[in-house]
Amino acid sequence: MNLGNLQNLQIISLDYNQLTNDPSMLELDFLNSLINCRQLKMVRIIKNPFDGMLPRALGNLSASVEIFTAHSSGIKVVKFQIEGLLRTYLQIFFIGNSKLCGASQYKAMPCKGGTGSVYRGIFSDGMIAAIKVFNLDLEGANKSFDTECHILCNIRHRNLVKVITSCSNLDLKALVLEYMPNGNLNKWLSSSNNFLNIVQRLEIMIDVASALEYLHHGYPSPIVHCDLKPSNILLDEEMVANVADFGIAKLFNEDQRISLTKTLGTIGYMAPEYGSTGLISTMADVYSFGIMLMETFTKMKPTDDTFGDFTMMRWVFESFPNAITQIVDVDLMNVVENSVKAEESCFRSIMGLALECIADLPEERLTMKDVLKRLKKIKTEFC
After folding, report:
1. What is the DSSP letter of 47?
2. Do 232 and 246 reside in the same domain of the chain?
3. Active site residue 227
4. d(CA 98, CA 86)
5. What are the backbone angles phi and psi of residue 155, rounded to the nearest 5°?
6. Which domain holds residue 20?
């Protein structure tokens, strides 16, 4: 750990030694001390029996280091930990025969909650997974990781994202999740290149309702997701929807039905009592589901500028029931123009259900059991 005192050090080569780590220290932490060596150009630690993660602070070496080689040294590397090295000064970065995780980015957006990033990882056995890496520099990231681990490791449902394993130490907290090749619902609703027909949209909403019905009523203690929105709905290869991102979810006691929280969800999807007072119950998820149901069939976000002084609720309410086809996604109307009456009745039933989900008072909203029954009935009648 005293290597950092060598202020004029330019090259350090520790190749082909039997260097291991002091058991009282974190693996490979000696590399952190090299950050103080401002003249350092080359670091070589080839062929040593290390067995640990590269330190998060290693990216700061790139201010001077031009060559970093560590192949066959038993190190484990996650992509975000070495991105800081890939700057102007670094010319060679060689870590052959190392354990590389998260080799390529899964999607260019932060974790739904903003606590980190998600990567697409391919393991040595060919398995593909989504690796959610928490940014430990952000406030609340540790708590978010603990919450997701606690909830996702104890729940099982077809429409909830599956956890393969987790990684946790002082430098890294990550969840290895089932990979969803069709991305999230937001991608399908916001892109002109993707299209979901009415049956697909209904099935996705039924999947989400099934997951919420399980969380609210099928688990010994009620679980409230608290941040339900299209970007947190992931789609597998068969377009089956999976609810994800439980970073701010609340696990109630068996007899508990209401709770207070200082952690807020996403503007536009939060129930009035949640956004104003932090009051949380299963009815908060019902409200978010109602907003998402409207968005799924209109392709309008609840925060869209075109609403002006309106809200999505008022916009739908004033179009209900006779002008409902004027607000439904125009692409859906183009597809079903030959059966307008039947489809209009279907849309009216969907929007009527959505309005019952977003009543101002929590006690006036439907339960997810009732929502799921109604959605299945709509699908049976019109599809």
Report:
1. S
2. yes
3. yes
4. 18
5. -115, 150
6. 3-100
Share of the chain above pLDDT 90, in %: 40
Q: Which residues contact 354 (CB under 8 A, 6 or more apart)?
A: 290, 291, 293, 294, 316
CB 201 within 8 A of CB 297: yes
Amino acid at 333: M
129 and 32 inside one domain = no
pLDDT digits (tens, 9 = 90+) for 29-86: 778 788 888 888 898 988 888 777 777 666 666 567 888 888 777 777 665 555 555 5
Q: Do residues 114 and 87 touch, judged by C-beta distance below 8 A?
A: no
**Pick from 40, 68, 100: which residue ends a domain?**
100
Cβ(44)–Cβ(15) below 8 Å: yes
Q: How far is CA 295 from CA 113, 248, 329, 337, 354, in A?
A: 20, 22, 9, 21, 10
Token representation of residue 251: 């696990």
Query: Same domain, yes or no, for 193 and 278?
Result: yes
Q: How far apart are CA 86 and CA 206, in angstroms?
A: 44
Of 171, 207, 227, 329, catalytic: 227
Are 222 and 78 part of one and the same domain? no
For the segment 110-138, the average pLDDT, to the nearest whole number, is 77
pLDDT of residue 22: 64
Per-residue pLDDT reduced to its tens digit, 167-203: 887 778 889 899 999 999 999 999 888 899 999 999 9
pLDDT for residue 104 is more than 50:
no
Q: How many domains does the chain have?
A: 3
> Does 278 score more than 70 pLDDT?
yes
Phi-psi region of 28 (alpha: psi -120 to 50; beta: other; left: phi over 0): left
